[in-house]
């Protein structure tokens, strides 16, 4: 199933065909950003992170901070990558922040995390962050491992919200179907 428009923003997912009730929803997934697939769709029997997409659909319009104004996409990516993971340009940086400061940064910047640690299908793609600079468009900043420059993909925020909602609804219906014995 594809939720959204792959040439802009879409979530592609399937339930493994051999599952029988009772079972959790196991399957395959990837996200499409401006025609670029993020995620390993060949990775079988993955947990499908519906809670992350449900949260994203609710918060997408709030994904901006004033400190991003005037920064390039690469500068925003590096700021988020350092605050959340301690990296700049893909290189681990010395970090003299206290534990309290790290927790504060996680609370302030964690909402911009996108696909990182969301499931094994996304583990090898690199890192991604998601922003909504103007309320009308959503921007995904993506940097594959080993590449110094991030890619930026934009899509209408309404499309992102609808894709998330439609995916969650589909996931929930499959969860109900697989919970009950046929």
Task: Describe the protein's topology.
Blueprint: E1 2-5, E2 9-15, E3 26-33, E4 36-38, E5 46-47, H1 50-59, H2 73-85, E6 87-88, E7 91-92, H3 99-109, E8 127-131, E9 137-143, E10 151-156, H4 157-179
Antiparallel strand pairs: 1-2, 2-3, 3-4, 3-5, 6-7, 8-9, 9-10
Helix pairs in contact: 1-4
Number of strands: 10
Task: Tell me the helix content.
Answer: 25-40%
Largest sheet: 5 strands, antiparallel
**Average of the residue pLDDT scores:** 95
Q: How far is the first residue's CA from the last residue's CA?
A: 23 Å
Categorize the overall geometry.
Answer: globular
How large is the radius of gyration?
17 Å
Query: How many structurally independent domains?
Result: 1
Uncertain segments: none
Strand content: 25-35%
Determine the structural class based on helices, strands and strand pairing: alpha+beta
Description:
The protein is α+β, with helices and mostly antiparallel strands and 182 residues long. It has one domain. The protein has helices at residues 50-59, 73-85, 99-109, 157-179, and strands spanning 2-5, 9-15, 26-33, 36-38, 46-47, 87-88, 91-92, 127-131, 137-143, 151-156. Strands 1, 2, 3, 4 and 5 form a 5-stranded antiparallel sheet that branches.
Short description:
The protein has 182 residues and is an alpha+beta fold. It has four helices and ten strands, in the order βββββααββαβββα. Strands 1, 2, 3, 4 and 5 form a five-stranded antiparallel β-sheet that branches.
Main attributes of the structure:
globular; 182 residues; alpha+beta; five-stranded antiparallel β-sheet
